[in-house]
Amino acid sequence: MPPSLRHLRFVMILQAFVALFLVALTSSSPVVEKRQTLARVITKCTKPNTVALTFDDGPWVYLYDVSKALIAYNATGTFFFNGCIYDADEAKRVLYAYQKGHQVASHTWSHSDLTTLSWDNIHDEMWRVEQALQKIVGVVPAFMRPPYGNYNDLVLQASAVRNQSVVIWDFDSEDSIGATPAQSESDYDQIISKHPSTILALNHEIHETTAHQVLPYALDKLSKAGYNMVSVAECVGLPAYQFIGSPEIRDSTWHC
Predict the structure, then answer these.
(1) Within-domain flag for 254
(2) Residue 25 and residue 55 in one domain
(3) Residue ranges for the chain with pLDDT beneath 50
């Protein structure tokens, strides 16, 4: 074999050897692309002709009246609870809402803006409420509403890890930012006059005027408009809870 051909053959064998070496190296030490799943963000109902009336920041003393008003119209509410709900009176309200058929869900522990927190602190905010609801009611919620409606990818990643959907809204009664009952009622009138297929409404149970004036007004108007007033879970066709069990007996772990 001429020297030139022997040299070419040597180069080709060397190249093949190098290629095989690189394949073996990458196979033993694969580069894994990290992918983060984001939680579903619910901004509106999906089932036609439904309205989901939601109530944040409880459980407060007006919860009983809110529930009675809803039941009078065959309506189901969704309560997003936050704070240390182990207090005996608050725990009683949480259980009452659940036993009356309303949906109970998480609004985090301290009502902090989750977009300002670390990964670990976001999980802590969510876990504390989930644990409390499991002790008090016996359920693990499948829905979470971030305080102020604020979320980022980190919040959505944490929610996905916890198998929760993030719930926002497409109508705000504005009771939390100083709207008078007349203004909130007018806002309900305006949205109902447009008769959208669905409404996902934000209210706050901590306001006496919401419980005793605005809600009864809205229920009457929504009922006459022919809407079915259901929970968030029902209006999007998803389970309300990841787990359903029995309430636990109060013990030393029921503390803030």
Answers:
(1) no
(2) no
(3) 2-35
